[in-house]
Specification:
This protein is an alpha/beta fold. The chain folds into 2 domains: 3-165, Cobalamin-binding domain (Rossmann fold); 196-428, Alpha-Beta Barrel (TIM Barrel), CATH 3.20.20. Helices cover 40% and strands 17% of the residues. The protein contains 19 helices and 17 strands. It has helices at residues 15-26, 49-61, 76-89, 99-103, 105-108, 121-131, 212-218, 230-243, 261-274, 290-299, 313-319, 326-338, 356-367, 387-394, 424-436, 443-451, 453-457, 459-484, 489-495; strands at 3-9, 30-36, 66-70, 93-97, 114-116, 143-147, 150-153, 176-180, 182-184, 194-197, 200-201, 226-227, 249-252, 279-283, 301-309, 342-349, 374-379. The protein has a 9-stranded mixed β-sheet, with helices on both faces. The longest helix is centred in the last third of the chain and has 26 residues, at 459-484. The protein is globular. Bound molecules: cobalamin (B12) and iron/sulfur cluster. Residues 203, 205-207, 210, 212, 255-256, 307 line the site of iron/sulfur cluster.
Length: 504
């Protein structure tokens, strides 16, 4: 019997490998899931020698034959390092999968034996069957490997159109290990207060900085945005809740939760009866349907996260390839307020092409939105293969060494914190924007501060005001989370020490 280990680098949710694991188990294979360290905003560190030794000795002890590693671009060097260590001390085959391996298969094959492009369930099953001696490698779609020093790219298989064929995620049980300083035989989600799930794959939009721009290009002429049945997502949640007893809320991580009316109707009815927990979604304001929003609210929707990214139509359309209609955002904000939803707006900073005028437009837009709301501020990061990376390379704004994989900026600045260095202009805008989400500061005061030449010259002052108000807001958010029973030790750590507090 072939023993398979699927390793997730710095991601304890990793729905991708949990799905592959269930699929392999359903087809009779013996699978272990190893969660190697976890994601902490702006505070990532390379693994220690002890952690690496744990991984190698665990694979040895479990007599693993095939390893599959799942990682995103910032973790490339760690994937390379772990792969080399495992290969030097164990007789195993190693496959890489996920977005980075899909984008950079040739470079990846310098380290591992196989690359799986795109969705991994079927390719991993075929690969396992081949290594178990039942099939040959030739013709396994989505697979790349070297033969006589030549890189073989097998064809891409079509995307899984019927998501319901996939078994529920592999949650809990004895086949999970967590390495973070020490090695534990547990699923790290046992202590989670929040369960992250998906009802769809893909996204109907095509923003330049996002992985969707890559997949869309790979899968032309196919239905890219796919939605599973309500029954499928609910049964997956039920499996999760039966394994993880501390879950207090559900987060739908679907790129955008914009499903057809019949789906929303069925979902709202059944979710309320069967799950009964508050839930959160990511949404696109362009797709606002008031009656759907109300139904979702009645079913338990507590928080809705909306991508605005910028207040400038020009920046949005020309740099991010996103439609931005300021009136649409304002209308959404009014509707959300009417039904008392918690709203979070996503914004992107640190775009080298953003002008002072663009920043003013953002401040004006945010000041027009009804409070209260929260802000998730992200630092623009360039990932390989995206349209944005091509634009920036063409304009010589970056070099290939600045793209994640060769770089790892996400280790230090993913959600914005004040401790990361940025230009004076950018810092001023960040500080002003961060004040706008603090309902206890009157908007007129913020308008005055935004125009102050004195503060622009004495940046430390506005930074201090912004930091202090942010601290108050985070304290308040923390209290609310404690009261709702959703603050775990890990969530607390994710938000960081006082030195690297996230702006909210
Ligand atoms: C939820 C989410 C998170 C969550 C949880 C992350 C996690 N590890 O589970 C949080 C908020 C913590 C997070 C953090 C980060 N994320 Co994130 N995240 C996502 C999101 C929205 C969903 C991931 C997911 O579960 N997808 C659903 C599953 C089914 O798809 P999948 O992961 O792609 O897996 C399939 C295939 O890729 C393949 N596959 C995957 N692994 C393997 C391994 C093997 C061996 C094989 C054969 C196949 C295979 O098979 C899977 C099943 O078909 C994606 C975008 C997206 N929709 O995918 C971004 C995304 C993965 N995140 C991204 C990034 C960059 C990050 C961060 C670095 C933060 C940042 N700066 O943006 C961190 C890093 C976290 C980490 N450890 O990798 C990028 C990755 C881009 C890149 N080139 O690296 C994505 C693609 C979004 C984007 N910006 O375009 N993220
Ligand atoms: S809406 Fe979100 S998930 Fe969809 S393409 Fe844009 S950034 Fe990516």
């Amino acid at each position: 019997m072939l023993n398979i280990a699927l390793i997730s680098l710095y991601g304890v949710e990793n729905n991708g490998i949990r799905s592959i694991s269930s699929f392999l188990k359903q087809n009779g294979f013996n699978v272990y899931l190893i969660f190697f360290k976890r994601w902490l905003n702006n505070d990532m560190h390379y693994p220690s020698e002890k952690e690496k030794r744990h991984l190698v000795s665990l694979c040895k002890e479990l007599e693993i034959d095939l390893v599959g590693i799942s990682f995103t671009s910032p973790f490339l060097k760690i994937a390379q390092d772990l792969t080399m260590q495992m290969k030097s001390s164990l007789d195993i085959k190693i496959a890489w999968g996920g977005i980075h391996a899909t984008v950079e298969p040739r470079e990846s094959l310098e380290y591992c034996d196989f690359i799986c492009r795109g969705e991994g369930e079927h390719v991993m099953l075929d690969l396992a069957r081949a290594l178990a001696g039942r099939w040959t490698l030739e013709g396994i779609k989505n697979l790349c490997y070297k033969k006589d020093d030549k890189v073989i790219f097998e064809d891409l298989r079509p995307l899984i159109q019927d998501l319901d064929i996939l078994p529920p995620q592999d949650y809990g049980g004895v086949n999970k290990f967590f390495i973070d300083k020490d090695l534990k035989n547990i699923d790290p989600l046992v202590s989670a207060k929040e369960l992250r799930v998906f009802a769809s794959r893909g996204c109907p939009f095509n923003c330049s900085y996002c992985y969707n721009s890559i997949y869309r290009a790979l899968y032309q002429n196919q239905r890219y945005y796919r939605i599973g049945s309500v029954e499928k997502v609910l049964s997956e949640i039920e499996v999760g809740l039966s394994r993880f007893k501390k879950i207090k809320k559900i987060k739908f991580d679907d790129d955008t939760f914009i499903f057809p009316a019949y789906w929303i109707d069925e979902f709202c009815k059944k979710y309320r009866q069967r799950v009964k927990l508050p839930f959160e979604i990511l949404f696109n304001a362009q797709c606002l349907d008031k009656s759907n929003l109300k139904k979702l609210k009645c079913a338990g929707l507590k928080r809705i996260q909306i991508g605005i990214q910028t207040g400038s139509v020009q920046e949005s359309e020309q740099v991010y390839n996103r439609k931005l209609e300021v009136d649409v955002i304002k209308k959404f904000a009014q509707e959300a307020k009417k039904i008392n939803l918690d709203v979070v707006y996503d914004l992107i900073f640190d775009n080298p092409l953003s002008t002072p005028e663009n920043k003013k437009e953002l401040i004006t837009l945010l000041l027009d939105l009804p409070r209260p709301f929260s802000l998730f501020l992200y630092s623009l990061t360039v990932f390989p293969g995206t349209e944005l990376s091509k634009i920036f390379l063409e304009k010589k704004i970056i070099t290939p060494d600045d793209i994640e994989g060769r770089a790892n900026k996400s280790f230090y600045q993913f959600r914005l914190g004040f401790s990361y260095p940025r230009s004076e202009d950018e810092l001023f805008a960040v500080a002003i924007v961060s004040l706008i989400s603090k309902s206890f500061i009157p908007k007129n005061v913020i308008r005055l501060l935004a125009r102050s030449v004195f503060l622009k010259k004495h940046l430390f002052l506005i930074k201090l005001i912004a930091q202090a108000s942010n601290f108050i807001k985070l304290f308040h958010v923390g209290l609310k989370m404690i009261m709702q029973g959703v603050l775990s030790v890990w969530k607390f750590k994710e938000y960081g020490s006082p030195k690297r507090l996230l702006i909210q």
